[in-house]
Amino acid sequence: MNTSFTFEDEIDLSRFNKLYKTETVSDAAPLTHSIPDGRYEVIVAEAILTKSQRSGNPMVRYVLRITGSTFRDRILRKHSAITENTIRFVKKELEICGLHLEKFEDLKVRAHEMEGVELEIVKVTKGEDSNIYFNRAITAQSQADGVAEDDLPF
Question: Which end is more exposed in the chain, N or C (fewer Cβ atoms within 10 Å of the end residue's Cβ)?
Fold first, then answer.
């Protein structure tokens, strides 16, 4: 998924000038509704190898879309920095997502293979910081007759 946008045609926002000037921030809906700590089922909507703006270290950036519960279609973001101290955690995340690499450098061209993987994750907040931990990949649940839901013809 490409998150940069270019516009072919000029976008005219002038019709909103008066409304923007008279709108007050306190009347607007809250900017964020935090997703509470807990266990969630998600799908990896985006997995990209990038660099940390602060440290310059490589990192995997995940965009996770919640697929279950009352927070369906809400987005969680996870950034996994890659350093000598964190490589074991990054490897575990990659393997939970089903990405097994012969050479770690292959992550540059294979990170996108994690997109579409369904996961069970846990969101934990301590102080101001939130962390997301990958528990396991979710496989198709078998029904009583042994047919997976994904195999149904309708």
Answer: C
Tokens encoding 80:
């996994």
Q: What is the pLDDT of residues 4-58, one digit of tens each?
A: 555 456 767 777 788 777 766 654 444 456 899 999 999 999 999 999 999 989 9
Q: How far apart are CA 7 and CA 131, in angstroms?
A: 35
pTM over 0.85: no
- Token pair listed for 83: 């350093």
pLDDT at 26: 53
The structural architecture, per CATH, of the domain 37-138 is Beta Barrel (2.40)
DSSP letters spanning 15-69 = GGHHHHHH--GGGSPPS--PPPSEEEEEEEEEEEEEE-TTT--EEEEEEEEE-SS
Binned at pLDDT 50, 70 and 90, residue 153 comes out as low
Tokens of 151: 């195999």
Both tokens assigned to 28: 């607007």
Rounded Cα–Cα distance for residues 35 and 71 (Å):
8
The DSSP 8-state label assigned to residue 121 in this structure reads E
One-letter amino acid for residue 86 of the chain: T
Radius of gyration of the chain (CA): 20
